[in-house]
Amino acid sequence: MDDLGLSATLTWLWRDFQDTYPEIHVQSQIDVEDGDIHDTLKVVIYRVVQEALNNVARHSKADQVRVALTKENDIMELTVQDNGIGFHLEEVL
Fold first, then answer.
1. Distance between CA 25 and CA 15 in Å, rounded?
2. Beta-carbon neighbour count of residue 49 at 10 Å?
3. Residue 89 above 80 pLDDT?
4. Residue 10 is inside which H or E element, if any?
5. Which class for 81: exposed (0-12), middle (13-18), buried (19 or more C-beta within 10 A)?
6. Of the candidates 11, 93, 92, 17, which has an alpha carbon nearest to the alpha carbon of residue 53?
7. What CATH number has the domain bearing residue 86?
8. How many CA atoms are closer than 13 Å to the CA of 73, on its beta-carbon side?
9. Has this prediction a pTM greater than 0.85?
10. For residue 74, pLDDT beyond 90
11. Among 5, 6, 18, 54, who pairs with 42 as Cys (CB 3.0-4.6 Å)?
């Protein structure tokens, strides 16, 4: 990530994910410049996306996942959505 930046590293991550899980299509949107994100936060974002994709593959039975990283004013938002089966929060607590 230090050499490539967050955007390129995330792109590599979902390409690798799609190679491993070709039945799951990844749609991505990154609307944030690397310079707008502190290095520590870049690592957190990468790890969250990595874990979310692993959970999609293991649990959701989805065939599509969308990952978006956007920034509006001073608010950054990371969204990971899939078309899987979902779960009820009360059942897992």
1. 10
2. 21
3. no
4. helix 6-20
5. middle
6. 17
7. 3.30.565.10
8. 1
9. yes
10. no
11. 6
Residue 32: both structure tokens together: 């944030």
Whether 28 is in a domain gets the answer yes
Q: DSSP assignment of 18-42, as one string?
A: HHH-TTSEEEEEE---GGGS-HHHH
Q: Is 44 left (phi over 0), alpha (psi -120 to 50) or beta?
A: alpha
88 falls within a domain:
yes
Please name the residues in contact with 26: beta carbons below 8 A apart, sequence gap of 6 or more.
14, 17, 18, 53, 65, 66, 67
Amino acid identity for residue 70 in this structure: T
Mean pLDDT of 33-45: 92
Q: Which range marks the domain in which residue 80 is found?
A: 6-92
Percent of the chain residues past pLDDT 70, beyond the cut: 99
Query: Looking at the domain assignment, is residue 48 inside a domain?
Result: yes
Q: What is the SS3 assignment for 48? A: helix
Q: Is residue 30 part of a domain?
A: yes
